[in-house]
Task: structure prediction
Amino acid sequence: MATVNRLTVDGRDYFLPDPVTELKGKILEAIKAGGGYVNVPPLRGGPGVDILFSPGMPVTWSQFEVGDSTAPADDSADDAGDYGL
Result:
């Protein structure tokens, strides 16, 4: 299982790999400074996106586990309501 972090900024979701401790610190610093751009890295490769963080902007973090995409699917009827979450 892999851990994925979701950063929600002003209603938009950004999915991030672990670790996010340094990124959280940079966002907090930008907000304490009255606002500033922080580069949010992508989940898989690429340059990421620069987001302007400012005081009062709604920012939420969540973390969840995702299953291995190479694992075989179990199609049994007993697990019809189990979505692996």
The mean pLDDT is 83.
